[in-house]
Specification:
The protein is an alpha+beta fold. Helix content is 29%, strand content 19%. The site of 2-oxoglutaric acid has 11 residues, from strand 4, strand 6, strand 10 and strand 11. One of its GO terms (molecular function) is metal ion binding.
């Protein structure tokens, strides 16, 4: 009986929260001093320890001739910063700051102006996160750039910056994919030819200030499902990456904000396509205790070709009797079906395709 009453209370809380269409920011604006029940995690910061001082995520300097730096980082860490890319891609020095400022401005509009874009994402465990997520753009995978009607769904106050960000993130992903292909010893264009730049999803995340940061999380530990993620974050911090050393010791490493840098991470699909050479690693966002909300934006790259005869799995060029496939091949429809059914829990997705 008690649990059905609790379930009813919870349903009422969820309904009230959704109907407000004001999101977590609306709660903060209304002056909540405690994290409401639906956002509370049983033990958000249990599990493995924080990294010892001096351990940090590798940096790949795109202005230097170090062709294997990205591949080494993708193998050992699954995460790396890219720096000094502005000249390489002929982009303004204020990137990604200009995008992040525009995304912040959107999130800080009065609630009634944001409401049209309100959308709440919960994972299959039903837990709510202390964040706002706007899917700022999602367009048919067959189209190389957003069609005009998709552009109009992007909030007007950040539309220009979002479109610039899409173009920059795609150029960076193209260059990084080429480096990662070279690291696999295959043609630099192999991932692009497999349509991995085409199926893009962009999100802007806004993590409001939290009155009880120890009770909830921005994002629980997860791996990204796609091929590659290109992420921009502002100066607040909160993203942590799980790193396991060669001795098998694991800890959370802060992805400290580096001005102007972008973060790249390997997703589950790339781990499988590379037959485990590159690793998709868990990451999470802890609540900040700053006085200002945190803003980040990720572009998730996925294969765009999704026909019945388009199969993914270890790249055939990599497979030999010394390197037999560790995963079976699958169509994107099966992959996505499994993705939407799974828990956000670590590595659950990839296990389904192991041979
Ligand atoms: O906000 C961040 O820094 C990371 C977000 C993230 O991991 C995701 O959206 O998958
Ligand atoms: Fe992620």
């Amino acid at each position: 009986m008690a649990s059905s009453v609790a379930a009813t209370d919870r349903a009422a809380l969820v309904k009230a929260f959704d109907e407000s269409r004001a999101g977590v920011r609306g709660l903060v604006e209304s002056g909540v001093s405690a994290v409401p029940e639906i956002f509370r995690h049983p033990d958000p910061y249990a599990s493995i320890p924080l990294a010892p001082p001096g351990v940090s995520i590798p940096v790949v300097d795109l202005s230097l001739p170090s062709p294997l730096a990205a591949a080494d980082a993708a193998r050992d860490w699954g995460f790396f910063y890219v720096v000094n890319y502005h000249d390489h891609f002929d982009c303004d020095d204020d990137y990604p700051g200009r995008l992040l400022a525009a995304a912040r401005a959107f999130n800080e509009l009065p609630a009634h102006e944001r409401a049209a874009h309100y959308g709440r994402t919960t994972s299959t465990d039903g837990m709510f996160r202390w964040r706002e997520t706007i899917d700022v753009a999602f367009w048919p995978s067959s189209s190389p750039s957003p069609p005009e009607d998709a552009k109009l769904t992007i909030p007007a106050c950040c539309r220009a910056e979002v479109l610039e960000w899409d173009a920059l993130a795609t150029a960076v992903a193209r260059a990084v994919m080429a480096l990662l292909c070279e690291g696999l010893g295959i043609g630099a264009g192999a991932l692009e030819e497999a349509s991995c730049l085409e199926g893009r999803v962009m999100v802007c995340q806004y993590y409001p200030v939290c009155p009880e940061p120890e009770r909830t999380m921005g994002i629980v530990p997860h791996t990204d499902p796609g091929v590659l993620t290109v992420l921009a974050q502002d100066g607040i911090g909160g993203l942590q990456v799980k790193h396991t050393t060669v001795d098998g010791e694991s800890y959370w490493v802060d992805a400290k904000p580096v001005p102007g840098a972008l973060l790249i991470n390997v997703g589950d699909l790339l781990q499988m396509m590379s037959n485990d050479k590159y690793k998709s690693v868990e990451h999470r966002v802890v609540m900040n205790s700053h006085e200002e909300a945190r803003v980040s934006s990720g572009v998730f790259f996925n294969p765009g070709k999704r026909g019945v005869s388009d199969f993914y799995g270890p790249l055939p060029e990599l497979i030999s009797s010394e390197n037999p496939p560790k995963y079976r091949s699958f169509a994107m429809s099966e992959f996505l079906g499994t993705f939407f059914k799974r828990d956000l829990a670590s590595k659950a997705l990839i296990e389904n395709f192991k041979i």
